[in-house]
């Protein structure tokens, strides 16, 4: 299920129509600053006919929900950066859609260098994790949630989460650097590959970046 209850770290694995069915809950998860992670093999959405092959239609339909988004371009990147999504979600209090190309990256048979769970454990921000768990529903510590608000108060509260989102890029980049120290593979929010004196660039994400890299070479 695509629900992240306070106190329990939650993830789900989905794609295409399944992801769209989760959109109403995604607004609530993001609005309550719950650090869930959705791992999505990005695929086409059925329109005039059924087609679930490689496309980014499903993840692009969730951009407005408040989830942060992290994309990978190869099977190795999925191995390395899935941890970045989880670590960043805990520290930032912002849920993540971590996605890669369906039927391209998701079905590729490839050798990867796996990271040991013990390498990731020291990177978890235990203070933020404890803060999240203290937010769990507890009958001994009742709180009011899920109220109805008038527009003036609603928008004040809605804007109050902006600081969390402003902090996300720096948090993600920091964890990418820490993962790079473990793996030896360099990751950044934006990675440039090609000639230093190039007068034209291609901006892309997903497995097409691997094909572009080969073409450049």
Structure description:
- This protein has 217 residues and is of the alpha/beta class.
- It has helices at residues 16-20, 23-31, 57-60, 75-92, 117-120, 126-134, 151-159, 162-183, 208-216; strands at 11-14, 37-42, 68-71, 96-101.
- The protein has a 4-stranded parallel sheet with strand order 1-2-4-3.
- α4 (75-92) links the parallel β3 (68-71) and β4 (96-101).
- α4 packs across α8.
- It is globular and about 60 Å long.
- The N and C termini lie far apart (43 Å).
Structural class: alpha/beta
Task: Give the tally of β-strands.
Answer: 4
The parts where pLDDT drops under 50 for at least 5 residues are none
Largest sheet: 4 strands, parallel
Radius of gyration: 19 Å
Count of helical stretches: 9
Give the fraction of residues assigned to helices.
Answer: 40-55%
Mean pLDDT: 91
- Encode the helix/strand succession as letters: EHHEHEHEHHHHH
Strands of the widest sheet, in order across it, are 1-2-4-3
Which geometry do the CA atoms define?
globular
Strand content: 5-15%
User: How far do the termini sit from each other?
Assistant: 43 Å
Features:
217 residues; alpha/beta; 9 helices; globular
Layout of secondary structure:
Blueprint: E1 11-14, H1 16-20, H2 23-31, E2 37-42, H3 57-60, E3 68-71, H4 75-92, E4 96-101, H5 117-120, H6 126-134, H7 151-159, H8 162-183, H9 208-216
Parallel strand pairs: 1-2, 2-4, 3-4
Summarize the structure.
The chain contains nine helices and four strands; from the N terminus they run E-H-H-E-H-E-H-E-H-H-H-H-H. With 217 residues, the protein is α/β, with parallel strands linked by helices. Helix 4 (75-92) links the parallel strand 3 (68-71) and strand 4 (96-101).
């Amino acid at each position: 299920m695509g629900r992240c209850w306070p106190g329990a770290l939650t993830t789900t694995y989905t794609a295409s129509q399944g992801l769209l069915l989760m959109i109403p809950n995604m607004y609530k998860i993001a609005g309550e600053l719950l650090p869930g992670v959705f791992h999505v093999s990005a695929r086409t959405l059925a329109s005039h006919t059924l087609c679930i092959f490689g496309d980014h239609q499903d993840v692009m339909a969730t951009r407005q929900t408040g989830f942060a988004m992290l994309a990978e371009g190869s099977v190795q990147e999925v191995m390395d950066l899935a941890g970045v999504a989880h670590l960043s979600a805990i520290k930032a209090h912002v849920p993540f859609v971590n996605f890669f190309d369906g039927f391209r990256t998701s079905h590729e048979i490839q050798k990867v260098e796996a990271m040991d769970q013990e390498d990731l454990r020291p990177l978890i921000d235990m203070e933020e994790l404890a803060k999240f768990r203290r937010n769990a529903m507890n009958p001994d510590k009742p709180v009011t949630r899920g109220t109805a608000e008038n527009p003036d108060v609603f928008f004040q509260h809605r804007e109050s989460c902006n600081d969390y989102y402003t902090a996300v890029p720096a948090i993600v980049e920091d964890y990418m650097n820490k993962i790079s120290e473990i793996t030896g593979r360099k990751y950044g929010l934006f990675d440039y590959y090609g000639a230093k004196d190039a007068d034209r660039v291609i901006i892309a994400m997903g497995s097409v970046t691997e094909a572009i890299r080969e073409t450049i070479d």
